[in-house]
Amino acid sequence: MFRPKWTQACFCALFFTVLGVQPVQATNLSQKMAESEISNSQVIALTQSPVKKAPITEKTPETSQILSKQPSPATANPSGRPTLSADAAVLMDAITGDVLFDKQAHKRRAPASTTKMISAILGLELGRPDEIVTVSPKAAAVGESTIHLDPGERATLYELVTGALIKSGNDACVAIAEQIAGSEEQFVRMMNQKALFIGAKDTHFENTNGLPNKNHYSTAYDLALIARYGLQIPAFTSITRQKETEIHFLEPDFFMDLRNTNKLLWNYPYADGVKTGTTNAAGKCLVASATKNGRQLIAVVLHAPNRFGDAQKLLEWGFAQTETTSVVKSGEMVAEFPLSGFEPLQALAQYSVEVSLAASDKTKIEKKIQWTRSTDLPIQAGEKLGICEVWLNGQKITSVPLLAEREVKAFKPRFLSLNSEGM
Question: What's the first-to-final CA gap in the chain, in angstroms?
Fold first, then answer.
């Protein structure tokens, strides 16, 4: 059943003007946490890795046209780089976090509706999918791209997150924020804290949905980090890969059909997310993911007239020209720790390390051992002895701690005891 408001809204063209982005001095996480009134449970959620949850993609009208091992620096830029229409772009391996391609990846830009990725992440991490949300007058009054909420309407949090990601509902984002944090302002503080925890250091949010604000900005790299984090949440992944779906409102009782504006889901067989976004200042933006032969890549293109073509070109280039290789495996003996008077002590990798890089660079990987512990005894089994650094083309990519394979006790000399009668 369609409401009259929804039917009328389908004939409205949505346009809005965005002010230029200006850098703002970002405060650190502890300062932000001191400024905000957030419960202990919310603080824990803001600074944790994704929690696996039950399942839960953007529709922005074209007329209104972002744990595991920390991401490592760019490791591969082979010849034959794709030519893009985008002003800024990045290609990242979703598992390793390695950057395979970048074009002004750290330049701050208006992110438009790609902002909604982190709003959805917080909604899924801090709320229950089945909790009922009552739409406030403030949420219903939000304009531009919306799902046409009315004051007093009720729906589950899960349905509103779906509306925010697939239909890019600005009003849904405000409703989510008010349900989780009590106010949009408080929720925005939490968004900025979560962004810092994820590693998005060149990102600052002023609202939940990406509406124009000169102090609301991100980068292609930061948006890739946020998407990578979100894709570790099953519900987020499930929503963003949907081409079409519907959401159910409880009061009044009706269903709303949604169609994803991420055309890559139709045009590219390996595509499985994530979020589009468009404003005058941001231009056409896309955060896209694709999985091929078990390997998932994330492409971000900002201010890209041909965003879907750019993203597909980047993804195909990444699958064809780069690969993921294992450098060391968890528990593997990497080196021998020298001990005077004892047999060398085997140093084992604490965890596995994989890197994504150009196929032609695979043989150029170097391992350098740095011992950080003295040879003083005793040494406990599992004690850290040093690190194994992984280098490529003169740049350190990552490192892994090296642990003692066994215990080595201190040497205790035995002395002969003689009594006075024997002298």
Answer: 110
Is residue 136 within 8 Å of 149, Cβ to Cβ? no
Catalytic annotation present for 284: no
**Is 116 annotated in the active site?**
yes
Q: What is the pLDDT of residues 195-211, one digit of tens each?
A: 999 999 999 999 999 99
Whether 183 is catalytic is: no
Q: What whole-number distance in Å separates Cα of residue 308 and Cα of residue 271? A: 11
Is it true that the peptide bond before 338 is cis, omega within 30 degrees of 0?
A: no
Buried b or exposed e, range 321-339, using 16+ CB within 10 angstroms = bbbebebbeeebebbebee
Catalytic residue from among 59, 116, 275, 313: 116
Of 36, 113, 136, 218, the active-site residue reads: 113
The answer to whether residue 237 scores a pLDDT higher than 90 is yes
Q: How far apart are CA 142 and CA 236, in angstroms?
A: 24
- Rounded CA-CA distance 395/293 in Å is 29
Q: Is residue 165 a contact partner of residue 120, using CB atoms and an 8 Å limit?
A: yes
Architecture of domain 4-321: 3-Layer(aba) Sandwich (3.40)
Q: Give the strands of the sheet with 88-93, arranged side by side.
A: 99-103, 88-93, 295-302, 283-292, 271-279
- Decide which of 59 and 410 is more confident: 410
Q: Domain spanning 329-404: which CATH class is it, in words? A: mainly beta
Which among 168, 218, 289, 356 is annotated as catalytic?
Answer: 168
